[in-house]
Amino acid sequence: MPLTQFDLKNAKPADKPYKMSDGGGLHVVVQPNGSKLWRLKYRFLGTERLLSFGAYPLFSLAEARAKRDDAKKLLAAGVDPSVKKKLDRLAAETSARNTFALIAEEFIETHEARGSAEVTRAKLRWLLLDIAAPLAQRPIAEITPAEILDLLKRVERSGRRETARRLRSRLSAVFRLAIVTLRATNDPTTALAGAITPPRVQHRAAITDEKKFGGLLRAIDGFEGWPTVKSALLFTALTCARPGEVRGARRTEIDFTKAVWRIPAERTKMRRPHEVPLSTQAIDVLRDIWSFSEHSEFVFPSIVSNKKQLSENAMNGAIRRLGFGPDEMTSHGFRSTASTILNERGVRPDVIEAMLGHQSENTVRRAYNRAAYWPERVALMQQWADMLDEFRKP
């Protein structure tokens, strides 16, 4: 006869385990310690097998019968319920091991394999492993749009809209990696399109008036702070290079004989080697600081340690101390200053773009520009340095 709740509640333990049958192979085993365990006896391919459903009352009589019926359906479909249970357990264990942090680390490693710059990988680690830390130990296949939205909104509420936007983009890339490696089936960030307030576009401040720019140059000349900061600012103004490229400049990249600064591909924004002609004024700046940095690999070592490069905050901080606010000038603004003034003076735009290290989308044109504009760039760099000397005059 089928079991009842009364039978199960009042079943007493004995010296040996005994069974109480419910029918269809389902039974409960009453152990000497009083525990009551659900079991299903069935045959698969002529062999008798046993499947465990857990303990009573954790699993009720109705739940045990539902599990028995599910197992019967699998048998009717030619599937062994015990094997299915084992595979489901393995899948769950695998899913638990495939955490967001694990996939994020793999994503960062793919960037390293592609030759991305260390600064790029550092930003990825900061976004995916630090900012997204609440997701770190979550199985990636179980992460929901609601979880991600909560994370993005917290970042957004802190005033970092651009960080929230970038975080969503990088999270999506990690989920796409999980999908193509069969560890997730969907990207939960796609449901969040438009959920984050767009960041306010902020253009880097730059002085484009020649007289005012001359005032800045005179102020830098009189700067009494850390020597590498002053030299880095002057070198940035003279070379029109990106501040990150200047701050990370290695002594081995400087060729005094040929008056060239060779920036390797891994340190440039475009991931292409970039050669910068050095004017006589730029060479003078380097020679002035050269002995100061002789115990460092960097041309402009950090204030804190000569084993580290100068920080961006140090350069911008110096500009502030010289009396130029963040809405007036930044270390990156030297590039905009040069571009604006040189364009206004009628210099060929293609040469200016090549000087700034900008890259044409056309690969043939890009290769041509690198070769064709070198003599003009050499002349332009010296012309620009001479112009800075003129700007300095009161």
Protein described:
The protein is built from 16 helices and seven strands. By secondary structure, the protein is α+β, with helices and mostly antiparallel strands. It has three domains: 5-93, Double Stranded RNA Binding Domain (2-Layer Sandwich); 100-192, Tyrosine recombinase, N-terminal domain (DNA polymerase, domain 1, Orthogonal Bundle); 210-392, hpI Integrase, Chain A (Orthogonal Bundle), CATH 1.10.443.10. It has a four-stranded antiparallel β-sheet, covered by helices on one side. A hairpin with a 2-residue loop joins strand 3 (36-44) and strand 4. Helix 6 (145-157) runs antiparallel to helix 7 (161-180), helix 9 runs antiparallel to helix 11 (280-290) and helix 14 (349-355) packs across helix 16. The protein is rod-shaped and about 110 Å long. The model is unreliable at 361-368 (pLDDT under 50).
Give me a quick take on this structure:
The protein has 394 residues and is an alpha+beta fold.
For the biggest sheet, the summary is: 4 strands, antiparallel
Overall shape: rod-shaped
The helix fraction, in percent, is: 40-55%
Q: Under the CATH scheme, which architecture of the largest domain would be assigned?
A: Orthogonal Bundle
Domain count: the total is 3
User: Mind telling me the CATH superfamily name of the largest domain?
Assistant: Intergrase catalytic core
* CATH class identity of the largest domain: Mainly Alpha
User: Given the helix and strand composition, which structural class is it?
Assistant: alpha+beta
CATH topology of the largest domain: hpI Integrase, Chain A
> What is the number of helices?
16
How far apart are the first and last residues' alpha carbons, in Å? 108 Å
Strand content: 5-15%
| Overall mean pLDDT | 87
Helix and strand sequence? HEEEEHHHHHHHHHEEEHHHHHH
Tell how many strands the DSSP assignment holds.
7
Strand numbers in spatial order across the main sheet? 1-2-3-4
